[in-house]
């Protein structure tokens, strides 16, 4: 059983919540996490950079100067790669950086990172996070009350425009709905700040397939 305290927006412990070990108590697997991290970063690359070879650069059809008598090196084209304005040797061309990874491994990697956050005490669970208006100063005050003095990932159950707009100007702070939780953002922020509703949404979404509750059990 994984038991963590639940805080209010003043930083006070008001309750405790039991986290499912299948999601928040998984043994570490660095190889799977590393592969998931590399895959996600690679898949984010556009791969649209391109250069021209000497055969694609315009011009160069005429011999720039005569073969002998000038004292210079022999030139057959002004588009030679060793001349300014010439083609590029072994330059990049459009390609796909996409990597495949089994779904079970991707899900395991996320559960491993979530479990490490719990094991290292880098998770803060709040009872709710609702702002009546867009106010960055209020969000900064909430983070200070909770003792967040480093980078933090704020996760809510549903997309919340007020929370997002209040936190987007704060340095090293990012907000995400539970559905978009991913390995890169978890590893890029030291503290995971998550609401109780978001915890249940994460457990529902990332629970191993064979251990999910059926509609009758739920």
Provide the descriptors you would attach to this structure in a database record:
218 residues; alpha/beta; Ribosomal Protein L4, Chain: A; 6-stranded mixed beta sheet; 7 helices; 6 strands; 32% helix; elongated; disordered C terminus
Describe this structure in words.
- This protein is α/β, with parallel strands linked by helices and about 220 residues long.
- The chain contains 7 helices and 6 strands; from the N terminus they run E-E-H-H-H-E-H-E-H-E-H-E-H.
- It has a domain at about 1-30 and about 100-210: 3-Layer(aba) Sandwich (Ribosomal Protein L4, Chain: A).
- The chain has helices at about 20-25, 30-45, 105-120, 135-145, 160-165, 185-190, 195-205, and strands spanning about 1-5, 15-20, 125, 150-155, 175, 190-195.
- A 6-stranded mixed β-sheet has the order 2-1-3-6-4-5, sandwiched between helices.
- The two termini are about 20 Å apart.
- The model is unreliable at about 215-218 (pLDDT under 50).
Give a quick summary of the entry.
The chain has 218 residues and is an alpha/beta fold.
CATH class of the domain at 2-28 and 102-211: Alpha Beta
Distance between the termini: 20 Å
CATH architectural label of the domain at 2-28 and 102-211: 3-Layer(aba) Sandwich
Going by CATH, the homologous superfamily of the domain at 2-28 and 102-211 would be: Ribosomal protein L4/L1
What's the topology here?
Blueprint: E1 2-7, E2 13-19, H1 21-24, H2 30-43, H3 103-119, E3 123-126, H4 136-145, E4 152-156, H5 161-167, E5 173-177, H6 183-188, E6 191-195, H7 196-206
Parallel strand pairs: 1-3, 3-6, 4-5, 4-6
Antiparallel strand pairs: 1-2
Helix pairs in contact: 2-3, 4-5
């Amino acid at each position: 059983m994984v038991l963590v305290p639940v805080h209010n927006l003043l930083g006070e412990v008001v309750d405790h919540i039991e986290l499912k070990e299948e999601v928040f108590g998984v043994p570490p697997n660095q190889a799977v996490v590393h592969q998931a991290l590399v895959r996600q970063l690679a898949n984010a690359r556009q791969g649209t950079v391109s250069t021209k070879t000497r055969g694609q650069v315009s011009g160069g059809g005429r011999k720039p100067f005569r073969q002998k008598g000038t004292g210079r090196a022999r030139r057959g084209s002004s588009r030679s790669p060793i001349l300014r304005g010439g083609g590029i040797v072994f330059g990049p061309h459009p390609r796909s950086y996409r990597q495949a990874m089994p779904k079970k491994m991707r899900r395991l990697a996320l559960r491993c990172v979530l479990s490490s956050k719990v094991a290292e005490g880098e998770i803060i669970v709040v009872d709710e996070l609702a702002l009546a208006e867009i106010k960055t100063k209020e969000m900064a005050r909430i983070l200070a009350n909770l003792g967040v003095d480093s980078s933090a990932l704020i996760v809510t159950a549903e997309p919340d425009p007020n929370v997002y707009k209040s936190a987007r100007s704060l340095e090293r702070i990012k907000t995400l709905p539970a559905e978009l939780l991913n390995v890169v953002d978890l590893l890029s922020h030291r503290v995971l700040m998550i609401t109780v509703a978001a915890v249940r949404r994460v457990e529902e979404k990332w629970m191993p397939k064979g251990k999910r509750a059926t509609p009758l059990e739920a």
